Amino acid sequence: MKVLHLGDLHLGKSVNDFNLIDDQRYILEQILAMIQDQGIDALLLAGDIYDRSVPSEEAVQLLDHFLCRLSEIGVDTFIISGNHDSDERLHFGSRLFETNHVFICAKYDGTIYKKECQDEFGRINIYLLPFVKASQVKYFYPEEKIESYEDAVRAALAHTDIDVSERNILVAHQFVAGKSADPEVGGSEGAAVLNVGAIEKIGADCFDDFDYVALGHIHSPQKIGRETLRYSGSILKYSQSEASNPKSVPVVAFGKKGEVSVELAELRPRRDMRHLKGKMEQLLDPEHIISPEDYVYVTLTDEEPIPDAISIFQQHYKNTMKIMYDNAHTREKEQVVVSKAAEKDFPERISDFYHMMYGCEISEDEMKIMKEIAEEAGVINEAG
Fold it and tell me: Which residues, other chains included, contact 203 with Cβ-Cβ below 8 Å and sequence gap of 6+?
């Protein structure tokens, strides 16, 4: 059996007011061709299908087209929700979709969805665990001590019948760390997690019973601890921090129990995303201009600001996303900002983060829970 592992489509996403729907359509067509060329039997979609809980009409239409094509090809498709998705919206019609071999699990109902598949070596069990919070699992298992994301995932798995003598696959959307290091983050997902320390982190050993774990949530493609526990990464570059981060997708081949091989298939976007740095005169020298259709972030090292610099760049790189400066003045300013941030205590940092993510203030009860979890994780002491 051969499976393709995808995650973090973020359909409908815009970056710096640039709508990426055409780029997403292009890369999904490339993935459909890859599925046919490589004889893929199953597709695993590990969450964040949409970029927003209320997706745009064009994002819904693109997913509809993609799923219809997958059904026509005859590949089994397994989908879970991520933290960007609306459980209800993504789950809608899931029972009807199953007749076309599209299996969606967007809501945790106290059990982990399981689908049994067959190949020449016997049975393969595919488990679908959508993005869950501690409170969701606690609701179904009030007797369990569940205070963190890791507690929640461990409890959900503990209440799942897993036959370790068979081949088992898990599709999940969480922030998973290895025993020695955190994942290499790219884009807003990982950066947001690291801003609040280890609160959301889940140990990789939670998933020791699975032959392959298809993760979503982190945008940089990578393995976590072992070759068969990995993030596929996002299908496109969605932030400046990903400009030097090539995209690929894992193609996973299963033989008999214990035989799993992973190959990374490169994704080639319609337009790349790059970061250019230097003086304007050098960057806009005709000899230095390559791939002018690409999305570019520009850091100018000129000491004096250049009026309307972005318009000048857009005459040469029409998809210039942002102009920044790195010079004596900006470096001095950055030192002041870092100094002020270091003076903030844990509640202030959490409040800033919460407001950035949700656009509102954190409640007293929520702050109390965050403090308790952070204390248990060793991020802060009881004094704060």
Answer: 150, 176, 177, 179
